[in-house]
Amino acid sequence: MVGSFFAAVVCFGLLWFLVVMIRFSFVGGARAKGSEKRLQRPALSEVEAKWGVKLPQSLETYFRSEIVTRSDFYLAPPGSDQSKWWYIESFLPLTRRDVSEWIKITNVPGIPIALDASKGTYYLPFQSLRQKLQAPVLLRLPGRARKDVEVASSVEELLHFEPRNAPPEEA
Does 3.40.1580 match the CATH number of domain 35-164? Predict the structure, then answer.
């Protein structure tokens, strides 16, 4: 009896592993197809309708700019030293399809807008967006603690951050 139960648990575990692998390897890849084309075509109204939020209009302007096509760089507040720089691996398209996928993957309580190289996610929190408050830009750090760090007090503040290449010691 115990042997049969153990075999069933192992089979279930292997089946679950297979489902997860298929989901994130094939289905996730297919869903992400064309994301580069969607990156500079934000669909704020469809995102707002799906999650019942109000996104800052400046976010659309930001996502239509060339900065979102960059990858592997830093965003730095004007005049700041390197300790205040924020690493951006890539930005995420702001469409219903992409935001839905990235919320599932990252499990952030908001609208994900970019990733860092350490599996951290930059996002705008649902709570502020639903209350139509000035939403801060947060970085959800990876790990069990799932700690959030404020990057900018608003999207408008983030707009003033300057792109920086990796410092020579990292290159």
Answer: yes
